[in-house]
Amino acid sequence: MADKKKQSKTYGTNIDFNAFNLRPASSYLDDIKRLKDELTVSLTGFGSTVKPDGAAKPGEAGERPANKTQDTLQTSMDEAKKAADDLLSEMEKKGAALSPSAPKTEAEKSPEKPDLDKLLAELDELVGLEEIKKNVRSLINLAKVRKLREEHDLPTPAMSLHLVFMGNPGTGKTTVARLIAQLYYAIGVLSKGQLVEVDRSGLVAGFVGQTAIKTDEAVKKAIGGVLFIDEAYSLAANTGENDFGREAIETVLKAMEDNRKDLVVIVAGYEDLMEQFISSNPGLASRFNRYFTFDDYNGEELYKIFLSMCEKNKYKLTVEAQEYAKKLFSDLYTNRGPNFGNARDVRNIFENVIGVHADRVAYDPEIDERDLTLVIREDIKKASEM
After folding, report:
1. Is the dihedral of CA 97, 99, 102, 106 positive or negative?
2. What's 354's domain CATH number?
3. Which residues share a beta bridge with 145?
4. What is the DSSP track for 299-333?
5. Which residue in 2, 93, 148, 162 has a CA-CA distance of 20 to 30 Å to 267?
6. Tens digit of each residue's pLDDT (9 = 90 or more) over 329-347
7. Widest CA span of the chain, in angstroms?
8. pLDDT of 185-222, one tens digit each?
9. Domain range for residue 341?
10. Which residues lie below 8 Å from residue 140, measured CB to CB, with a gap of 6+?
11. Total number of domains in the chain
């Protein structure tokens, strides 16, 4: 038994848990303390069933005379408890691998703060969205000054950092939400700056009592950052007797209040439906008072998005291909219908283009780097017809 205790000490002292990216070190120490307490209770319960003279009184159910087996078990449990005490003592020493003062694991470390200027430059580089960029900069300035006033113990008027994004699909709402999460983190408004994106399916369950649990799980992941709820209006759509969307709304509202200093919620969806959604609950109307409207990209902007995708993937367009693409995206915008997908449509066309390009050059026995990167007019024409 002594050898086992020695091994336990060595294991607890020498293993570099940080190298394995395990959960926070202090939680392991808490687990061992809890197990030690449970062992103590077990010992107490075990001892209470054995009489000093080794015999149970008549009529006392569940009590048996002590025997050699019980003595051996009692000794083993005593030794196990002592081993746990020794292990706790080793771990609580300064520098022990699992002590509260040990270096933090990767799970405990906060991500490195991003550079504010770089994030703003990334915002400026987005195609179109001029009004959105202006509004984001104004919001960041306001939040930054508010944070500075707090640090100087100056009065800080109540301010909601939660946002409503209104617009059609593919207009950059998720991209801007991710940037805002990082910008809030860079200026110290949020502690982590992650974006957790969900929709109705990520919050609402199909059975009574499960929606609040599911929504809480999403909120916990988002604390320190932004919870981005896409198509949020679907939560308020009553689809029948067992619709739990409104339960999800109430759970999110409570989480916003409980974590108001380290959680931002952004709800997004079509403009008219989002207005109905906000007005469906007084709690929503009081917490969301900033609205960002994302307009559709025009033909020129769609073309620029297409070019950026090509450049990012090292594809080059011939002059004829450029002219064809310009007209293609101009017509796409002019003739857009209710299902117009903005940048999503551009991405679909781009993926079709590289597929057509691959079919054209794959069997060329003399293929070179120029062939692998050059997109011609016919590639785009065929892709647009798919």
Report:
1. positive
2. 1.10.8.60
3. none
4. HHHHHHHHHHHHHHTT-EE-HHHHHHHHHHHHHHH
5. 148
6. 999 999 999 889 999 999 9
7. 103
8. 999 999 999 999 999 999 998 787 789 999 999 999 99
9. 299-384
10. 120, 180, 183, 184, 187
11. 3
